[in-house]
């Protein structure tokens, strides 16, 4: 899930097929015509049913972002938390305006050095970057205390960001047992199963598929 979801869907929407090693040692291929139920389960819970060794995905041209080279405009607007109502009203209008190819993020931050609660709006315009600012003029009209345009980072800048990110993680974990942490990019696997797979019918189907493809819990006891 990200700012390009409206253009390409989420990752599982772009899956065409998957090859999975099942609990009994078989290598099977699932897609919309073969093992459809397993394919459905694999899109959101594949690691519960087997070892996915290959995935075939839909690819998209860079031009989907509005330019042949795949570049698009990104802005950054920061407002005091007291302006939340006005800011969210304008963001709501942008969200419901279907005529423009736009997306974005809204976050509540407390950036240094003051560490005061701040609303950050990071809009994206999928088209000619020169047209980006006028698409979000309403955000500029709200008089943010900081605004800027973003450009893609160079590799050396990515390295700096990566090192800073690692330092930030280490700082947050000071005084704790680092061995107790597991970093999972797609979310937690330790919370209640009902929160991870919403809906009684969906969960019932997943449990039935688990009993069919991994009844002994070779990969995990979850869903048994």
How many angstroms separate the termini? 28 Å
How would a textbook summarize the main sheet?
Answer: 4 strands, antiparallel
What is the SS-derived class?
Answer: alpha+beta
Overall shape: globular
Q: SSE order, as H and E?
A: HEEHEEHEEHHEHHH
Gyration radius from CA atoms, angstroms: 22 Å
Beta fraction: 15-25%
| Strand order, sheet with most strands | 5-6-4-7
Rounded mean pLDDT is 84
Low-confidence stretches: 184-188
Please describe what this structure looks like:
This protein has 224 residues and is of the alpha+beta class. 32% of the residues lie in helices and 21% in strands. It contains 8 helices and 7 strands. The strands form 2 sheets. A 4-stranded antiparallel β-sheet has the order 5-6-4-7. The chain has a 3-stranded antiparallel β-sheet with strand order 2-1-3, covered by helices on one side. Strand 1 and strand 2 form a beta hairpin. The longest helix is centred in the C-terminal third of the chain and has 18 residues. About 2% of the residues have low confidence.
Q: Which features does this protein show?
A:
224 residues; four-stranded antiparallel beta sheet; alpha+beta; 8 helices; three-stranded antiparallel beta sheet; 7 strands
What secondary-structure arrangement, pairings included, does this model have?
Elements: H1 5-8, E1 15-21, E2 27-31, H2 36-45, E3 51-57, E4 73-80, H3 84-96, E5 102-109, E6 118-125, H4 132-135, H5 137-141, E7 146-150, H6 155-172, H7 193-196, H8 200-213
Antiparallel strand pairs: 1-2, 1-3, 4-6, 4-7, 5-6
